[in-house]
């Protein structure tokens, strides 16, 4: 695969509403992000991804855009975003924006024009169906748990929405609409945006069935049917995606990462040599606890062998086709330590181990704000503490289905998106240094000791460990193998033994994890390797001679939750 600039990237995702408040209104903003740029640079990352900052009524925290060309006053102004792009560039950091084009806000001018004028050209910008009996066209369920259809006024006409009713889906079959979207994307690229995280893009092509009057057998007590199979990656989506790639992405050499689940047999179309995107996110392991669930608050049991299988399979398939996007957390996920580690057993050792597990996989790694501190889920006790539209709707639907309050709350404590949206923990000052005023969402009570200020002063902190991982990947003698090297998952030992190999013609790196709370001998000879990273030790000085940095012999026992990253130079054989 031809080398691209974004393959040497490490991305830091920012949820602007919760990163840093500069104007004392309890809401993060663009000036706050500018104030945090030196911290971001200290991590060593070279790309930041901003969740939406466009004008929005914030029914879905910015993913319901009412004006693509204007920054929402909550976050600042267009000039503030241009200043952020400029200030980031001086620090060697590029900026990605969130591209939300499956749907808009119901307050977008296009939608309001459609409502007010039946002859408006915008009427065909949305998916409208009329029924004879005044009932919804069918019984498909939206991602947020209610019907995909909402009545327009007191008419028999309905509009389609994959998500909340305040987020009407756009009709991508309309070429005029598509050109409007490409023009908007080009506008932001012209302002210096380096690329896009592309939201919910797999939904833009709808099947004929989900738009028809076909009622499906209900799969839950609400009388509705799951819509995933009729919304995601439908035949014909390639026309839209290739058009977007050719008209915008290639023109601006954009970095693009798509939020779309892609089957193995279609992966080359999405991330191959001339794929639609630079990379796509893999949900097989990040949604391991909910994949296939249609009921409102059930989780799927999983084990380490399944987790290992998903990660290894994804890596081994993708490397033969294109580029990957390893991640543990984002704004739609709970905190990874609470998902992947046992309840009551989370500590600094296994938090670092989890970070290393994903960070040295092949692909461009993504770090979500606060992940580098080991931030955890919020201890929610009441539904009134949630702000996420998805959580509130799920609570309503689950209660209507007769689920017990305790079960619903347990699900939301584990899975709500608000877990990843609590304010960034900068210090032990009031409100975690995020703001001087009460923030829009409560700060996690552990901010008094889990924060940037305290971890900056601790050489063994999770924050320092993340800095070391970034340095190893981008600047060490092993940077090429950790970027471009091949991946091989080593299936040795029990399910608790995660061991994988990165290698090229000159270097080899092994990442060895004990994913358990007991000591475990490992069954691999490491004579001749040098220790690059150890979550039980201070950061080694890689500038010292190899002998002073430490090496490891044939026999060793990994401590509970220990991770070792070891490497060696491969001597070329003479002809």
Describe this structure in words.
The chain has about 575 residues and is of the alpha/beta class. The protein contains 17 helices and 19 strands. The protein has helices at about 30-35, 35-45, 80-90, 110-115, 175-190, 230, 235-250, 265-270, 305-320, 335-340, 350-360, 390-400, 405-415, 450-455, 460-475, 480-485, 545-550; strands spanning about 10-15, 45-50, 55, 65-70, 95-100, 130, 150, 155-160, 195-200, 255-260, 280, 365-370, 485-490, 495-505, 505-515, 520, 530-535, 555-560, 565-570. The strands form five sheets. It has a seven-stranded parallel β-sheet. α11 runs parallel beside α15 and α12 packs antiparallel against α13. The chain is globular, with a radius of gyration of 24 Å.
Keywords:
alpha/beta, 575 residues, 14% strand, 5-stranded antiparallel beta sheet
Put the structure in a nutshell.
With 575 residues, the protein is of the alpha/beta class. The protein is built from 17 helices and 19 strands.
Major beta sheet, strand line-up:
11-10-9-5-2-1-12
Total beta strand runs: 19
Overall geometry comes to: globular
What gap, in angstroms, lies between the N and C termini?
27 Å
Note the beta-strand portion.
5-15%
Number of helices: 17
- Helicity range of the residues? 25-40%
Specify the biggest β-sheet.
7 strands, parallel
Mean pLDDT: 94
> Given the helix and strand composition, which structural class is it?
alpha/beta
Which residue ranges are poorly predicted, with pLDDT under 50 across at least 5 consecutive positions? 540-550
């Amino acid at each position: 695969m031809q080398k691209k600039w974004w393959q040497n990237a490490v991305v830091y995702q920012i949820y602007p509403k919760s990163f840093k408040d500069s104007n004392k209104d309890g809401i993060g903003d663009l000036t706050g992000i500018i104030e945090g740029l030196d911290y971001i640079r200290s991590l060593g990352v070279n790309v930041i991804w901003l969740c939406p900052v466009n004008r929005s009524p914030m029914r879905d925290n910015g993913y319901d855009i009412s004006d693509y060309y204007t920054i929402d006053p909550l976050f600042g102004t267009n000039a503030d975003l241009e200043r952020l792009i400029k200030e980031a560039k001086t620090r060697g950091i590029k900026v990605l924006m969130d591209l939300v084009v499956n749907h808009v806000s119901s307050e977008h001018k296009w939608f309001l024009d459609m409502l007010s004028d039946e002859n408006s050209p915008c009427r065909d910008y949305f998916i409208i169906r009329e029924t004879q009996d005044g009932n919804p066209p069918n019984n498909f369920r939206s991602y947020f748990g209610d019907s995909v259809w909402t009545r327009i006024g007191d008419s028999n006409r309905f509009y389609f929405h994959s998500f909340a009713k305040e987020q009407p889906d756009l009709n991508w079959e309309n070429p005029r609409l598509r050109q409007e979207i490409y023009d908007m994307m080009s506008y932001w690229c012209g302002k210096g945006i380096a690329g896009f995280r592309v939201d919910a893009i797999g939904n833009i092509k709808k099947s004929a069935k989900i738009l028809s009057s076909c009622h499906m057998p209900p799969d839950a007590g609400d009388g509705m049917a799951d819509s995933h199979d009729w919304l995601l990656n439908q035949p014909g989506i390639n026309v839209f995606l290739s058009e977007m790639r050719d008209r915008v992405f290639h023109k601006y050499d954009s970095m693009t990462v798509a939020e779309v689940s892609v089957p193995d047999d279609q992966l080359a179309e999405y991330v191959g040599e001339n794929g639609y995107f630079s990379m796509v996110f893999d949900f097989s392991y990040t949604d391991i606890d909910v994949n296939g669930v249609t009921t409102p608050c059930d989780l799927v049991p999983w084990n380490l062998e399944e987790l290992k299988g998903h990660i290894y399979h994804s890596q081994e398939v993708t490397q033969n086709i294109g580029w990957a996007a390893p991640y543990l957390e984002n704004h739609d996920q709970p905190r990874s330590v609470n998902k992947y580690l046992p309840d009551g057993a989370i500590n600094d050792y296994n938090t670092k181990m989890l970070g290393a597990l994903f960070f040295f996989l092949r692909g461009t790694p993504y770090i979500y704000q606060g992940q580098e501190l080991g931030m955890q889920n919020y201890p929610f006790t009441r539904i009134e503490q949630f702000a996420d539209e998805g959580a509130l709707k799920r609570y309503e639907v689950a209660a209507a289905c007769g689920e017990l309050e305790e079960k619903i709350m347990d699900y939301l404590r584990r899975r709500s998106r608000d877990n990843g949206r609590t304010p960034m923990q900068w210090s032990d000052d009031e409100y975690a240094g995020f703001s001087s005023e009460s923030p829009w969402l409560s700060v996690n009570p552990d901010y008094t000791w889990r924060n940037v200020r305290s971890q900056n002063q601790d050489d063994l902190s999770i924050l320092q460990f993340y800095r070391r991982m970034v340095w190893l990947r981008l600047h060490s003698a092993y940077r090429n193998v950790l970027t471009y090297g091949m991946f091989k998952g080593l299936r040795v030992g029990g399910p608790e033994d995660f061991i994988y190999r990165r290698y090229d013609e000159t270097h080899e790196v092994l990442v060895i994890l004990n994913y358990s709370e007991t000591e475990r001998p490992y069954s691999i000879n490491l004579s001749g390797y040098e220790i690059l990273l150890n979550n039980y030790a201070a950061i080694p000085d890689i500038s010292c001679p190899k002998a002073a940095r430490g090496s490891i012999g044939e026999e060793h026992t990994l401590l509970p939750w220990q991770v070792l990253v070891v490497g060696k130079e491969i001597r070329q054989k003479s002809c």
